[in-house]
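Quick note —
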Amino acid sequence: MTSFDSPEAIKHFQSICDACQELTSRYHSPSELRIYADGYLHSLRNCKRLPSRDQEKLEALIDRWIMDPSSFIGPDGDINNLFFQKESR
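Predicted structure written out below.
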């Protein structure tokens, strides 16, 4: 289920992962990551850049990946600070 038939699908998966990690480092929430990924996937679907089988696999994999907090590293490298900026005291 997680292998793709085209190298382009791997490229797009990595691109989404990199962008979401960057957004996480700026304290964006999981719902904001979901909006970003949905837009990216919608664009791919509309321009038909991937075979439909790879498109479906990519969408399913991204759904699981974004919902798993272990997919991300907090901005300071600590998973406890993931998505939320600590208030200064």
